[in-house]
Amino acid sequence: MVGQRSCVEEKMIKKMDALGNCDELDVRAAVMKRVRAIYDQQKTMDGEMTNLRGELESFGEPGDPVMQMQEKTIPLSSKFRKRILSGVSAAILLGMIGFGALQLSGLGGLTEHGSQSTIDIIKPSDGSITLVNSGGRVVVQTVHTNNSKPVATASPAIEKYQTLLATYNEQVLARLNPGEMAAYYVIDTEFTNLVKGLGYGNQLQFAFNPLVYSKYQDFVNELKVAGDFWPELPSILDDGYEFEQATFKAASPYGSIDTEYKEVLEQFQKKAKDDKTGQKLFMEKIAVNAIESAEVSYHKGDQRITLSLMQSAFRGYPTQVSILEGQTAEKWSMTGNGKEAVFIAASTEQGAQAWTSQNRLYWYDEASQTIRSLNDGLNNILTREQWQAIANSFIR
Questions:
Q1: pLDDT category, 152, cuts 50, 70, 90?
Q2: Rg from Cα positions in the chain
Q3: How many CB atoms sit inside 10 A of residue 151's CB?
Q4: For residues 66 and 60, what is the distance between their CA atoms, to the nearest angstrom?
Q5: Within a 13 Å sphere around the CA of 285, how many CA atoms are in the beta-carbon half?
Q6: Which end of the chain, N or C, is surrounded by fewer C-beta atoms within 10 Å?
Q7: Counting beta carbons within 10 angstroms of the beta carbon of residue 315, is it exposed (0 to 12), middle (13 to 18) or buried (19 or more)?
Q8: 255-288 in b/e burial notation, b at 16+ Cβ within 10 A?
Q9: Are 94 and 86 in contact (CB under 8 A)?
């Protein structure tokens, strides 16, 4: 069989020798036409592989000076030249078509933005759900909260305190650039009496002027510097939503029982005592060293979703998650990585006495030993399918 095929090839070569010109066998134009068709198809798919055109142009068109020079500088026999040309042309054709097919397959996979693992959903009849760490200790526990009682209104003293605090806080923020934080102390008899009368221990206050980040990497870098907050924040969600913008809220650097708190408070009290101008507000800029929460927006076309992110360290006892009347709780098991989460749907209760609630997702991150949570604010615009895509994107 091989001998017959070789004989046929010899006859074809002799026939082409009689023509005295190997250009009849030059299939480069056909090769380039097919390769460029593959390239154009790829470009139409998603705009990638823009450098392929330049690479293909290096092969040249028939009659290209570079190709002509190569033919002249390698004087080969007619038969040998035909075999080389036919072999190389076929190799280029098969190789480039195969390359194009590989790229088409790869690009098609990228449009899925990662594979979504399935989620096994368990809805206990009593609504009681627990999450445990690798050591078997309970880290998250749901508890039912009776919200049938009317919501208590704030007393006049609390409302007055909140109004004064907001006024001084705005004055401090006006002196801060975006991304800056300050500690401040107020010398105001009415404000001080309210603080003491209401039993509030924080005489020292803090203000932070948030900065909005439009670039994903800038935001992630700042989260790491400011408090190592959420290092695995995804830039794109499994359902195709991409990072749009984000901001974060700085946490108070220390509490009222900390030594640093007392030292800073004493410094402010000394300044206030020595002041002869009668000013009521004293402030000092401080560094941000902890993050309380973050807010991240993702978009797909003209659609946008906004998520609030929080995390807290596991301190050896379970974090209790409230389930209000009208809410449902489910345990979600991620089949892809074996991790578990608690999803609490927003309340469906209506009326003046209904509590405002949010869709919430909780899980335990073993690497950082933190309990993490997401919510979509009070708008509750996200569907169940969107929440499952979010879970697949965030819980790694």
A1: low
A2: 34
A3: 10
A4: 7
A5: 9
A6: N
A7: exposed
A8: eeeeeebeebbeebeeeeeeeeeeeebbbeebeb
A9: no
Is 374 within 8 Å of 342 (Cβ atoms)? no
Closest CA to 27 of 75, 91, 97, 99: 91
> Where do we find the tokens 């020079």?
69
Write out the DSSP string of 299-346: EETTEEEEEEEEEEE--SSPEEEEE-TT--EEEEEETTT--EEEEEPP
Residues 6+ apart with CB under 8 A from 243: 216, 219, 234, 235, 236, 296, 297, 298
In this prediction, residue 270 carries a pLDDT of 95
Is the pLDDT at 13 greater than 70? The verdict is: no
Query: What is the pairing mode between strands 242-250 and 204-208?
Result: unpaired
Q: Is the pLDDT of residue 33 over 80?
A: no
pLDDT of residue 11: 46
Considering the entire predicted model, what is its pTM? 0.66
Q: Please tell me the distance from the alpha carbon of residue 396 to that of residue 338, in angstroms, as a whole number.
A: 10
| Packing angle, helices 189-197 and 156-173, rounded to 10 | 130
User: In Å, what is the CA distance from 42 to each residue of 102, 107, 240?
Assistant: 11, 8, 20
Instruction: State which of 58-72, 210-224, 314-328 shows the largest mean pLDDT.
Output: 210-224
Q: Which of 312, 366, 375, 367 is nearest to 342 (CA)?
A: 375
In this predicted model, what pLDDT tens digit does every residue of 347-390 receive, in sequence order? 776 655 455 678 999 999 999 999 999 999 776 678 889 999 99
* Structure confidence by residue, pLDDT tens digits, 60-76: 433 433 333 333 333 44
How far from 88 is each of 30, 175, 298, 338, CA to CA, in Å? 13, 72, 49, 51
- What mean pLDDT is reported for the chain? 76
Cα first-last separation, the chain: 58
- Report which listed range, 12-21, 74-83, 320-329, is most confident: 320-329
The token duo for 367 is 């690497």
Cα(306)–Cα(299) distance, integer angstroms: 9
Packing angle of the helix pair 78-110, 2-19 (nearest 10 deg):
110
